[in-house]
Amino acid sequence: MKFFVFLAFLIFLNVAEPFALDCDFFETWFDTNLIYGCWSTILRTPSTNTVTSITGVHVIGKSNCDVTYLDIRGNFELPFFPKGIASFFPNVVHLLIGESMIPALYGDELNNFPHLERFLFAANRPLTTIPSRLFEKTPKVTSITIYFTNLQRVGHNLFKPLNISQLQYLILDDNLCVNRRASTQTEIRQLIGDLQELCPYPDENLQLQITSDSIVCRDEKIIIDGLQEELLDKNVRIGFLENELQKMIIKNDELKTKLYE
Ligand SMILES: *[C@@H]1O[C@H](CO)[C@@H](O)[C@H](O)[C@H]1NC(C)=O
């Protein structure tokens, strides 16, 4: 009995532990603009993936709302894309993340960054897939850099929400399926066209689309085949089938399941 009380206490500690993003705030020139940013290193892997507070001392006269540049590279063990950042920094224009161990992007990571123009996701080996929805809520994106990952699949509609005429560069160096960069309109359009062949994502719509708080799938059978065990075992582990071969397990204690059709 004592052991279980102790165990419950440990679990409580784990759940209650906050996730503070520790910022070094700075001002710097980018092109011809003076921008205000946070550079952050997460010293220890947090037990929750949602940022609960920001620490660090602002430059005089500045506040969280002035932050347009956010650099969270160099958190070498970080096993997830931190959630909830936009509730502290709603005006991020430049988002740089990487040198981390984020296993997957589910497509909703950028949803709360409507002002985003530059996205860099780099040196994150475990990444294999970029779903079509990633830029759905960030129509102003003009610069994309994704390099040094195990990327194999790119959603066919990834660039659909963007105005391709406004794309300035697309750097996709040193990924498993693509090692190219483009910086002119012609090159960019060529690369976007070629991606479907280089990094095909067959049956993306049949895959389970998992976000951190929902699971959506058009084909119920896949859910049943793929998730039965995990759903029965509510041990906060949800699995899904990728290409019906590769099974990925994600662990997320906030996960709720939402099944459509
Ligand atoms: C896309 O960008 C071009 C160049 O800036 C602009 O002329 C065009 O109106 C934009 N299209 C849309 C749909 O916003």
TrEMBL record:
Q: Which residues form a coiled coil?
A: 224-258
Q: Which UniProt keywords apply?
A: Coiled coil, Signal
Q: Which InterPro entries match?
A: LRR_dom_sf (IPR032675)
The organism's place on the tree of life at top rank: Eukaryota
Q: Where is the signal peptide?
A: 1-18
Q: What is this protein called?
A: Uncharacterized protein
